[in-house]
Amino acid sequence: MTYHPKSEFMQVMIERGFLADCTDYQGLDDALIAGVVPTYIGYDATAKSLHVGHLLNIMMLRWLQKTGHKPITLMGGGTTKVGDPSFKADERPLLSQDVIDQNISGMQQVFAKYLKYGDGPTDAIMLNNAEWLDGLNYLEFLRDIGRHFSVNRMLSFESVKSRLDREQSLSFLEFNYMILQAYDFLELNRRYGCLLQMGGSDQWGNIVNGIDLTRRVIDNQIFGLTSPLLATSDGKKMGKSEGGAVWLNAEMLSPYEFWQFWRNTTDADVGRFLKLYTELPVEECDRLGALAGSEINDAKIVLANEVTTLCHGAEAAAAAEATAREVFEKGGVGADLPTLSLSKEEIGDGISVVQLIVKSGLAKSGKEAKRLIAENGAKLDDQPLTEVKIFDAAALASPIKLSAGKKRHALVQLAD
Which residues bind ATP (predicted)? Predict the structure, then answer.
């Protein structure tokens, strides 16, 4: 990166590793110096919670606000009805309006932890693109907006090309998505003075479309900035764990499991993740990331505590660390472990340990749980579990601790 920005926001983006590309470095830098830059990132409402894969661009919005600019979190109440085809192998299942509304409600809880919403000049605002997409007249939209799009150019975008090269179907519905996203940027500029769209580098084509459309329709200059698509140093997609997506809502993933995800970061990723996911000074991130041997584990605990504090609060982070120490250093049970409480009715005449492993989230299926036991990867109260046991209500009167490998644990107990 040879460009040396003057604005604080661009300096942070470059220093901390957030920046992959920008449509106009100098123009955006000048705009950031000149005044408050309203900036949006769009989120389609495909689940009840955001996950760790979204956290990079949530942190970008947080830094944007900390450096004196205005974040716009755009909920895709309209575009979720279509589905973003970018780099997807298959068409996304279509969701009902009720499910979309529920998902938006769940996602809003996460944003409130990272951004300050309100009516002030740099307070964040939350919008829903259904506001302008739901009422569109199809023929007018084709005439006024569709005429600005070249199908030849749309077919050249990597996100579309990769799907067609694999001879996988791309529906006309999905093909429309990039036009709708471009229209979002035009409307946000027209209605709210939005000057910048940010997103992952897979969104580059969609962002450029919005900039071109806005220039053609209302002759305004706006900007795009992308972040790198993160993978861990061992090649895994960021935000995936053995148990699936790492959710940001506590009811979908306990703060302890969230903390544990960060504590299990690969050594080579610690310094980079500290810069991206915490607000520690860059020099401290570099110092911690350079630690070697057993000392790198101290840096991982700092990472886990900092990220968990932002997402779930300082108390949750402290409780998670205390539980981890108790579980790993003393072999204890730990009060903050994910807990499965079963009623006597659910237990009935007896429930197998295979069912308990699945119900507690340590395995996705009975087959996976049985394989875990057969391969000596399962433990019961820290002792190897070598056979399929059956538990009745009396056996669960005192909590039992189940473990899958060395790092994933859960408590099972009889409900009060």
Answer: 240
Q: Does 109 count as an annotated binding residue? A: no
- Ranking 87-96, 305-314, 337-346 by mean pLDDT, the lowest is 87-96
Backbone angles phi, psi at 98, to 5 degrees: -60, -45
Annotated ligand binding at 43? The verdict is: no
Residue 183 annotated as binding site: no
Residue 221 among known ligand-binding residues:
no
CATH architecture of 254-329: Orthogonal Bundle (1.10)
339-414 — its CATH code? Answer: 3.10.290.10
What gap in Å lies between CA 86 and CA 88, rounded to an integer? 5
**CA pair distance 362, 372, nearest whole angstrom:** 10
Q: Cβ–Cβ contacts within 10 Å for residue 153, how many? A: 12
- 10 Å CB burial of residue 194 (0-12, 13-18, 19+) is buried
Quick one: CA dihedral 365, 232, 402, 337, positive or negative?
negative
This prediction has a pTM of 0.78
Fold designation for 8-227:
Rossmann fold (3.40.50)
The yes-or-no verdict on residue 306 having pLDDT over 50 is yes
